[in-house]
Design a protein that fits this description.
Low-confidence stretches: 1-6
Structural class: alpha+beta
Order of helices and strands: HHHHHHHHHEHEEHEE
Number of helices: 11
Strand order of the largest sheet: 1-2-3-5-4
Radius of gyration: 43 Å
Shape: rod-shaped
Length: about 375
């Protein structure tokens, strides 16, 4: 039993099946009345009527057993006129719901039935005319059924393509959301890492200077409070973005670079900034340069607190932008280097490159070249 046969009839199916049954019975009566004039025995005439009406009743099951009923109809058609309309309906049903080779097999069976019918009924009319009319009807019925079948297959194919396209669009949206969340994770590392480094420096200063004056303690406590407040705000922004389906974390710009450096100076880190980049930078390049400087300052606060930091940001359109951060290198470096790995990925996304490591002068150097279109 096919999947379609196991499904319950819809309202449309009930309407169509009812109309088909009524038309088949009505045409069966007309054909029976016309065939009753043939020179045949009353017994055969009775078989014609009862078997023909039985085939009409069987049309209610044509969706479940179309091929079997069509072959039974071909057998009944060898002697029955009243089964003619029902046989045509069954041929059409097979052509709609079954492959072409099955439809051709049913067509051949009905063609053989037609040849037997002409011998059994002994029609007074010209047999050639009867054959031509019947075969033409069979061919037209099969052709119509095949057209309906191909159209339904086309519609189903288009529907499947639309469903696949919807699935692909959903997957692409999910992948875009995952990429956005990865970007948010990087932003969390950069922003909170810098804030917490400032907080750690001042907290450490209070711990190592128990003889500090009240003013110094109050100033350091205020900086700690402000850094903690900003870190909490940044964390809330990140959590808000993560809760949303898709979103973007507010991004810093290249113009915020002096503010970033000034915040590190207030934290007690001696920073020298050389900024020579005339002209507007592309947003993605400027943002990457900002993150490189931010990571360099974070590393300096973490690994060499109190040591001077030299920052150089120079470039011009067409030549690219060079970002360099130099600070005293500790004897033993701490950390897992994930921040620098993230910077390398950032630079690669904008077709730039990152270099980092100790210099012969004993400093740690973080250098980046970023493209700056003319």
């Amino acid at each position: 039993m096919t999947e379609s046969a196991r499904q319950r009839r819809s309202v449309r199916d009930w309407i169509v099946d009812s109309l088909v049954f009524v038309v088949a019975v009505f045409c069966g009566f007309l054909l029976y009345d016309e065939g009753s004039k043939d020179p045949i025995s009353p017994g055969l005439l009775a078989f014609d009527f009862y078997f023909g009406m039985a085939l009409c009743l069987a049309l209610w099951f044509r969706r479940r057993w179309p091929v079997q009923l069509a072959l039974i109809g071909a057998a009944i058609g060898t002697f029955s006129d009243s089964a003619g309309a029902a046989s045509v309906v069954l041929i059409l049903t097979v052509a709609i719901h079954r492959p072409l080779r099955v439809s051709l097999g049913v067509f051949v069976a009905n063609a053989v039935s037609l040849a037997v019918y002409i011998e059994v009924r002994d029609k007074p009319d010209d047999p050639a005319a009867v054959v031509i009319a019947a075969v033409s009807m069979y061919v037209a019925t099969v052709a119509w059924g095949l057209y309906i079948r191909s159209r339904r297959q086309l519609v189903q194919t288009l529907r499947d393509r639309a469903e696949r396209a919807e699935v692909v669009a959903t997957l692409q949206a999910e992948q875009a959301q995952l990429r956005a969340r990865e970007e948010i994770a990087r932003e969390m590392h950069d922003v909170l890492g810098h804030r917490l480094s400032l907080l750690s420096v001042h907290a450490g200063a209070l711990a190592y200077r128990p003889d500090a004056s009240t003013e110094d303690v109050a100033g350091a406590a205020e900086i700690i409070r402000a850094s903690a407040h900003h870190a909490l705000q940044d964390l809330r922004e990140v959590i808000g973005v993560l809760r949303a389906p898709v979103g973007e974390l507010p991004q810093p710009t290249f113009a915020d670079l002096p503010v970033l450096v000034e915040g590190s100076r207030e934290a007690g880190l001696p920073v020298e900034l050389v900024l020579d980049a005339p002209g507007p930078l592309p947003d993605h390049v400027g943002r990457t340069a900002y993150r490189i400087v931010q990571e360099g300052l974070t590393n300096a606060l973490k690994h060499a607190p109190g040591e001077s930091v030299h920052i150089s940001v120079t470039g011009a359109p067409g030549n690219g932008l060079e970002v360099e951060v130099r600070n005293a290198a500790p004897n033993r470096r701490r950390g897992d280097g994930k921040g620098l790995l993230g910077l390398t990925e950032r630079a690669a996304l904008v077709d730039g490159r990152i270099e980092h490591g100790r210099t012969s002068e004993g400093e740690f150097r973080l250098f980046a070249w970023l493209p700056w279109p003319a």
